[in-house]
């Protein structure tokens, strides 16, 4: 990030009123080289994205925020193991099994959200511990791509701590950082707009 910021400042030239020892031709050359470097960085990120798009993602960001009708929240099955088969006659009301299922589903969704929030809160104190907790709780997949998608899309995460996690020199953090960068799409964006999105 510091490198990109430095290149941006160089490409913009010497601020008005600032003193410099550069001659005008030298300043023009320096600005041009900085701009070329920025374009090369963006092109590299675009190449990574094109490679990534060729690989189907078996796990989307659904694990971050469970859908209302998603089977991942653990909707219980009927006792006979087949929801399409008619239930056997009983002395109780016919709708009782559905009522129990609905209550259980609501409770499971509530428990899911509470555990997810607990993981986010832990991440905002200790990022590495938070990710480990969320993986163990099956709220986030264990692959770099799934962790990157969670960091990018989940609400409530401290952006400074996301940066701290991505900046770790450990192998997993580096893989997540690369997957995070790969997830950006800069097609159709102007250079300055793409840089702002990336930063």
Automatic annotation (TrEMBL):
Location in the cell reads:
Cytoplasm, Cytosol; Membrane
Membrane topology summary: Peripheral membrane protein
What residue range is the signal peptide?
none
**Disordered as annotated region, ranges:** 52-99
The SEC7 domain extends over 105-199
Q: Which residues span the membrane?
A: none
Q: Which SUPFAM superfamilies match?
A: Sec7 domain (SSF48425)
- A biological process from GO: regulation of ARF protein signal transduction
Q: GO CC annotations?
A: cytosol; membrane; trans-Golgi network
Q: Which PROSITE patterns match?
A: SEC7 (PS50190)
Q: Which SMART domains match?
A: Sec7
Gene Ontology molecular function: any one: guanyl-nucleotide exchange factor activity
Query: Where is the major localization of this protein?
Result: cytoplasm
Q: What is this protein called?
A: SEC7 domain-containing protein
The record lists the lineage as: Eukaryota, Viridiplantae, Streptophyta, Embryophyta, Tracheophyta
């Amino acid at each position: 990030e510091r490198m990109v910021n430095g290149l941006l400042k160089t490409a913009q030239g010497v601020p008005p009123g600032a003193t410099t020892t550069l001659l005008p031709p030298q300043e023009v050359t320096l600005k041009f080289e900085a701009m070329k470097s920025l374009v090369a960085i963006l092109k590299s990120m675009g190449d990574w994205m094109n490679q990534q798009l060729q690989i189907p993602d078996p796990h989307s960001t659904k694990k971050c925020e469970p859908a209302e009708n998603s089977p991942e929240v653990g909707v219980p099955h009927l006792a006979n193991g087949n929801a399409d088969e008619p239930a056997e006659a009983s002395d109780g009301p016919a709708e009782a099994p559905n009522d129990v299922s609905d209550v259980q589903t609501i409770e499971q969704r509530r428990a899911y959200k509470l555990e997810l929030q607990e993981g986010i809160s832990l991440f905002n104190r200790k990022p590495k511990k938070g990710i480990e907790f969320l993986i163990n709780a099956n709220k986030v997949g264990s692959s770099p791509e799934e962790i990157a998608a969670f960091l990018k899309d989940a609400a409530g995460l401290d952006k400074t701590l996301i940066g701290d996690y991505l900046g770790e020199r450990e192998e997993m953090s580096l893989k997540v950082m690369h997957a995070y960068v790969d997830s950006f799409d800069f097609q159709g964006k102007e250079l300055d707009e793409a840089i702002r999105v990336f930063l």
